[in-house]
Write a structure and sequence with these properties.
- With about 150 residues, the chain is of the alpha/beta class.
- It has a single domain, classed as NAD(P)-binding Rossmann-like Domain (Rossmann fold, 3-Layer(aba) Sandwich).
- The chain contains four helices and eight strands.
- It has a six-stranded parallel beta sheet with strand order 5-2-1-6-7-8. Strands 3-4 form a two-stranded antiparallel sheet.
- A hairpin with a 2-residue loop joins strand 3 and strand 4.
- The radius of gyration is 16 Å and the shape is elongated.
- The protein starts with a strand and ends with a strand.
């Protein structure tokens, strides 16, 4: 079964995680912290949408090391938070893991294989010191702008 981790289970990550878990086509896990994590551990993840309410019980953790390599990692953190979690990602990454970055605005990987005069340009404002470029690699990125 396909393994999918949603890293950042706030409003967007919770919605994506709940829908994926409800579909039952993948082994879904969420990485969260604080009150969201504790609520999901205690009561599951409840989504109310279009007059329908559903509760799912995917695996939830604050520690990605508990999950192992995933087929897909969906990152639904704010862009400025990515450098803070990059060191937590390696346990989730296998040789074929694809990372989907669901962020607002211009993503750090935007100019990778873009073509033209900006091809390969790294954006210091969204990837300070090229940390994400080096540690994750833009070749793993699957774009998703929210």
């Amino acid at each position: 079964m396909t393994r999918i981790c949603v890293f950042g289970a706030g409003a967007i990550g919770g919605l994506i995680g709940a829908r994926l878990a409800k579909a039952g086509e993948a082994d879904v896990a969420l990485v969260a912290r604080g009150a969201h994590l504790e609520a999901m551990k205690a009561r599951g993840l409840t989504l109310t949408q279009g007059g329908e309410t559903m509760t799912v019980h995917p695996k939830v953790t604050s520690d990605p090391r508990e999950l192992g390599p995933q087929d897909f990692v969906i990152l639904t953190l704010k862009s400025h938070a990515l450098p803070n979690i990059v060191e937590a990602l390696p346990p989730l990454l296998g040789p074929g893991t694809t990372l989907l970055f669901g962020q607002n605005g211009l993503p750090w990987w935007y100019f990778y294989k873009h073509g033209g005069r900006f091809d390969g340009r790294q954006l210091e404002s969204v990837d300070p010191g090229g940390l994400l470029w080096r540690k994750i690699g833009p070749e793993r990125a699957l774009g998703c702008v929210i």
